[in-house]
Amino acid sequence: MGFSNIALTIAGSDSGGGAGIQADLKTFAFHCVHGTSAITCITAQNTLGVNQVKKINSDLIKAQIEAIVTDINIKAVKTGMLFDEEIIIAVSQQIKQWKLSQLVVDPVMVSRTGVKLIDEGAIASLKTNLIPQALIVTPNRYEAQILSNLSIFSLEDMKKAAQIIYNLGAKFVLIKGGGMKDNLQGVDVWFDGKNCEVLTTETIKTKHTHGTGCTLSAAITANLALGKDPFIAVKQAKDYVTNALKYSLEIGKGTGPVGHFFPLLKP
Ligand SMILES: Nc1ncnc2c1ncn2[C@@H]1O[C@H](COP(=O)(O)OP(=O)(O)OP(=O)(O)O)[C@@H](O)[C@H]1O
Ligand SMILES: Cc1ncc(CO)c(N)n1
């Protein structure tokens, strides 16, 4: 039987299984979306942090994307950890060459434990080569500060940054309010070029939050692959992350991952 709900993630591997490619493929599967992947970097990582990062040769990254798109019809794509300028340029060029649409760019910059997941020199390239091709760009507050050159302390600051990031060329901007322990946890700002919409959920009190950002952008991508409109895709993805946080997994000695099993565990 023909099956067309197919998504692609271009991201790094998290050996601990909480973020990156592993989070993306689980999220796709729990949306009934077939996941394909092009791995950009390998991280030696667990719930305590990132111990090592090794990038994949850009020719091999290109070859992974080419192998997928010349055979399989991809409905939506996300990018995660891209690490350096060479990879960003290679991936941006592939997205253009293969006319990959419905692109969600998660501009991953640092891990939750503060390890750099991108070269500082690569940020300019992210702004000029990749973000202009995005349907939706999903920075967290820290990434939004870097992309907009604004300090973000409040909801008003998030709204101002969203407008600046929109001007980089993405069709829609979603600034996420997780990460820091304050009253903006779970509060995200959506900007469509005209209006700002504040998306709010209850704050989930859990220590185990590893992979929230990857899971959110993957759920948005899955919803786009299912044919949903961008705003609906984002709202439903946010519900998915809220549930994944409610059912996060107490695994390892540090910050455990969000859980994807809630559709199976719920009474
Ligand atoms: N404690 C929380 N309660 C409810 N929602 C949360 C909480 N923490 C994060 N979120 C939501 O999770 C989503 C991801 O946001 P977050 O800012 O954590 O991403 P991130 O920093 O990119 O994640 P990562 O740590 O994976 O890099 C957003 O929709 C945010 O509002
Ligand atoms: C591979 C990878 N991608 C993204 C993140 C951000 O959470 C991470 N920690 N590891």
UniProtKB/TrEMBL annotation:
Domain (Pyridoxamine kinase/Phosphomethylpyrimidine kinase): residue spans on this chain: 14-258
Protein name: Phosphomethylpyrimidine kinase
GO molecular function annotations of the record: ATP binding; hydroxymethylpyrimidine kinase activity; phosphomethylpyrimidine kinase activity
Keywords: ATP-binding, Kinase, Nucleotide-binding, Thiamine biosynthesis, Transferase
Lineage of the organism: Bacteria, Bacillati, Cyanobacteriota, Cyanophyceae, Oscillatoriophycideae
NCBIfam families: HMP-P_kinase
Annotated Pfam families: Phos_pyr_kin (PF08543)
Domain of life assignment: Bacteria
Pathway, per record: Cofactor biosynthesis; thiamine diphosphate biosynthesis; 4-amino-2-methyl-5-diphosphomethylpyrimidine from 5-amino-1-(5-phospho-D-ribosyl)imidazole: step 3/3
Record's catalysed reaction(s): 4-amino-2-methyl-5-(phosphooxymethyl)pyrimidine + ATP = 4-amino-2-methyl-5-(diphosphooxymethyl)pyrimidine + ADP; 4-amino-5-hydroxymethyl-2-methylpyrimidine + ATP = 4-amino-2-methyl-5-(phosphooxymethyl)pyrimidine + ADP + H(+)
GO cellular component: cytosol
PANTHER family listed in its UniProt record: HYDROXYMETHYLPYRIMIDINE_PHOSPHOMETHYLPYRIMIDINE KINASE THI20-RELATED (PTHR20858:SF17), PHOSPHOMETHYLPYRIMIDINE KINASE (PTHR20858)
Gene Ontology biological process terms, A to Z: thiamine biosynthetic process
InterPro entries: HMP/HMP-P_kinase_dom, PM/HMP-P_kinase-1, Ribokinase-like
